[in-house]
Amino acid sequence: MDNTAQIDYWNGAAGEKWVRDADRLDRMLQPFAEAVLNAAKRCSGQRLTDIGCGAGALSFAASDSGALTTGVDVSEPLIAIARRRAEQRAPAANFVVADASAWVPDVKADLIVSRFGVMFFADPVAAFENIRAGTMPGGQMIFACWRPLAENDWALMPIVAALPFLKQPPAPPPPGTPGPFAFGNPDFVTDILVKAGWTGIRISPWDGDIELPGANAEETADFMLEIGPLSRAIAEQGIDPVKVRQALVSKVRSLTGAVGHTYLKAAVWIVEATA
Ligand SMILES: C[S@@+](CC[C@H](N)C(=O)[O-])C[C@H]1O[C@@H](n2cnc3c(N)ncnc32)[C@H](O)[C@@H]1O
Are 47 and 109 a contacting pair, CB within 8 Å? Predict the structure, then answer.
C-alpha cells in the first residue's frame, strides 16, 4: 500500500500548520476526544493504541483515564510535539512515528481509538486488517470521522464565503480518495471494516456546534485560511489568501459580531467495532 502522498502531506505543509495550531485545534476537537472515550467499554488498565494521534490530545485523555497508551502517527513534527507534551505530564504516553497500515506493535492492544486519524489510508481494507492484527481478539475499536462536507458548516461556510475569489468551486474528490471527508458514507465505512474482518460494527451520529478558534473575527478568518478544505483549495488554485480574508472576516462578523465566539455545526460518525 502506498501512503506516500499522505505521509509527505502530513510531514510537509499540513504537518506544520497542525503543529502551529495544535493547542487551538485541541480545544476545537475536544468534544470528539470525549465522545470516543465515552464509547469505550473500559479504558482503565487497557493497552490502547491511538491511530493517527497527531500531537497526542486523545492519547493523553486516554492515559488520564488509566489506559496504557501508544500513539502512532506518520507525522514527525506532530509526534515531536506529542513527545514534548508527554515529558511534561504524568501519566505519559508513548509515541511512535509509523504508518498505522503497516505498523506491528510489540504487544497487541485491547482498545484502538482515533480522532479523525483513519481516513487517510490508500488501501483502507488492508490498513484496518493490519490494525485488527495488532488488536487482541474481542478488542474494541472506536473512532471519530467526519460526515460529508455538506453537513459540516465549520468547513463548508469558509468555502462558500470564498467562492467569488476561487477560480472554480473545489471539486469533491472521487469516492474512496483518502482525505478528511472520505468516511462520510457509513455504508462505505461498514464495507471496509467487514472486509477487514471487524465485527459488531455500530455507527452513531454526533451532531453539535463546535467553537472555532479565534478571539475575534480576524483571528477566526486566519484560522479558516490555515486549516480545512478552504486552505487546500486556496493552495491548489494558487489564490492569494489576502484577497479572501476580508470576505471571511465579514462572514464571521455577520455570525458573531466583531468580538465573539464562532460556533458552527459539525457532523461526525462515532464508529465502533470489535476485533
Ligand atoms: C486530522 S489529523 C488528526 C490528528 C489527531 N488525531 C487529532 O485529533 O488531533 C490526522 C492525522 O492522521 C495522521 N495520519 C495520516 N495517515 C496516517 C497513517 N497512514 N498512519 C498513521 N497516521 C496517519 C496524520 O499525520 C495526522 O496527524
Answer: yes
